[in-house]
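Notes from hallway chat w/ T.B., transcribed later so I don't forget. T.B. wanted the structure written out for a chain they're using in a teaching module, and asked if we could keep both sequence and structure tokens in one place. Agreed to drop them here.
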Amino acid sequence: MRRLSFLAVALAATVCGANAQLSLATLTGGTNQGNVGGGIYFDLQINTTVTITQIDFLCGANTVAGTGVLGVWLGPSTYLGNVTNAALWTSVATATTTVGPSLVANGVLNTPIALGPGNYGVALNSSAFNHGYTNGLTCSSTTIPGSCSNSLFSNAQMTLRAGAAQNAFLTGSVFTPRVFNGVIRYSLGGTPIAVAAWEAFGKGCYGYYRSFYELFPNPASLNVGTGFAVGAIRLGLTPQGYQVTQSSTPLSTPLSAPLAVTTSLQTFSAAASLPNGMPFGIAHPLNGSIVSAPDLEVATTGYIVPAPATTAASATVSNTAFLTGVPRWAVHWKNMNPLVAGGSMYIEQNQTTGAIEVTWQTIADTGFTTTSTFQAAFFPGGDVEYRWGAMSTNGGGGYPVLIGWTEGGGALDPGTREITTTLPFSTQLVDNQPLTLASSGRPVLGSTVQLITTGIPASTLGGAFSLGIVGNPAGLPLAAINMPGCFAYHELLATVTIPMAPPQNQFPLQVPNLTVLNGQRLFGQSISVSPGFNPTGVLTSNGLRLTLGSL
């Protein structure tokens, strides 16, 4: 009897252990906070089926004591690149709990979330409180996003990679890296939910762009200047646009008297500032050709405009304003105030190289005492150099940084690029949208979604849509069949020939209402017969990853 009792106790302990509450904790304390109604995002890699029952979370210092609601949303396999499209996400649970300033709230979920092995993007919404979080360390260019030392948390069951935040949930500026502060509590096992999701990956052929830029929503991730990977770049003018390469030219020391800066937002004419006026015209791309500007308008906020275009010295930095506004060399466009901390500006001609050099020296950030020193050099042949010295990395929120070149006037958006790791690259004299595939909605069981192809060239004679169940995220290069710059993004299972004509095509995909398809992944790609782009006369789109689900 005594031995049987011991066996019973051991068996009970085993059963209880199987359902024991486990947890994965991140950071505590927080160094920053968002707005009420904002979002915090991270990726979860699940190694074995778990059921999440509670998410404890840090409230920001501005939270008013009371009752708040944490919303839990799931979307594509990663938050990266997907948090400005709310249609990709679906609500799976909420937690109503007591909130307060700098309080770690206990978020017991109204609906436990069972997740099977796989990768999930997670979005946490705040209602009646604001998220507290930690500013993450900046990843190096060779680091997997979210895997920096204070942004990666792991145990045997799951790995959390952080992260990003927005002041408005799933819309607006994305601040990164931001690290969720809290604890995920779960038990082993459960029946995994199946969330329908889609996401694009890879790139279509052929994208030509007149512009390039890197947008730093969080200037702490600035990777140019002293102590960073690139101290200077050269925009080499060619008949086709700019060839952008790394330069080793250091900043020149200004020898002239500084400009008379009288306001925080001011522009200066280079022709009026040089003793003998402009020594040469500034050749640059515009509207499909190379033109010459008779003057340069220099803004205190870190950019230069070629005449005859004019603009105010804008401190409001955005990629939309960049692409839709005037032509602009954005050397270090930021909300800066040269009247603070003795900042000075110079426009002069280098007597050795002949270049017109514009220097921003120890220009202070608005709202901060930190300063930046940088320079632009315009050469007689049309080449331009951006040179960075000691740069401020303060900011974020209303203080982003944008570096690049655009003709403006509604130029096609090439997307932000990491300049440091993608050199060399080129701009073109014309914009051309690559063949692009997207879905009209999430592929919920029993629904019909439209697979939409855009960027279809005018020369297109027809096309096809291909499907597969095995994806190739890296893409299989198709240069061997005379389609350089094009890729195949899945192993072919079936193709459907479709009429394809510009400007776009919609292919209806009917998702059967069969529970056996929960969690099934499909991969899609558009193909167009478009002579004139490569010897084969065929283009491919980006890849599309579809996860079928009942939610």
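Follow-up for T.B.: Residues 2-18 form the longest helix (17 residues). Might be a good example for the class.
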